């Protein structure tokens, strides 16, 4: 798979951006009843799986019931987190005008409060994708994933804490969304930190009480198996989310950028950076659904507010457009992207002097020449 692209003139970059704008405009104009049916069907299926799973776990002293209930609950939590919570909070369904399925009213089954997550993810990550020093999701402040990030001896252990993060991913993200590092650096007030910490504590307490106190008590004699089932379901959801998200952002062929490279970034250049800073995963329709369609990470980063069910249908058009302009389109099966991601984690755990740093093509196709045009970022 190619990891380089030819030099593109500013005119070619903007022509490329215009073609992507056209794809987006066509989807926006075509949104309608079929899309609404899709999201309401997913909500119905998810709630049915959760209700059924919890009902079965009420008699989970029987091993077959425990396995069935745990499987249903884990699947429900994956759907709620990946296809519903993540995408609804991106505003993908706001156009319907349904207050029950709206980015301003949805609160997901996740310890991190929706508003805190939308700030760190929708605003910071999707605006400054893979920009060292600006995108806090580039390693989540604890992992070194780019040669442009300063190495510290603690990074020698990053393979260990990257692995430990997976089963508790929801709690790691909740703490990350507090932006404690920003408060230490003086970029966030102590008062705001305390307010956000109180909001997290309230939400986390509700989540903990729901899964580990309320529903186990309702199960009566099956309380302990029910509690273990909830713990298992949450753990499986966390590992799955961690895997999909890391494989969409950190395979070896995905580029990172410096702050200087995005100065005066135009719309077309922003599109280029999203493509170069993301990776897709190949799989079946069920795989795409369970990934929240984040298996189409490139399309999601280009158009984060388009309905997720549309990513599969536009992916071939985006890939064809990239091929026309000689722009790499990173995609592959889960096992290959997973191995590549871990290769990156291991490689950047070592200091630059101990291993030759790898960065796919330092040719800056996203900014071949300084652009005089002001930044014009997409809605995200």
UniProtKB/TrEMBL annotation:
Keyword field: Oxidoreductase
Pfam family name, one: FA_desaturase
UniProt keyword Oxidoreductase, yes or no: yes
UniProt key word Oxidoreductase: yes
InterPro entries for this protein: FA_desaturase_dom (IPR005804), Fatty_acid_desaturase (IPR012171)
GO MF annotation: an example: oxidoreductase activity
Domain Fatty acid desaturase, first and last residues per copy: 65-331
Biased composition (Basic and acidic residues): 355-365
Name of the featured protein: Stearoyl-CoA 9-desaturase
Lineage, highest ranks first: Bacteria, Bacillati, Actinomycetota, Actinomycetes, Kitasatosporales
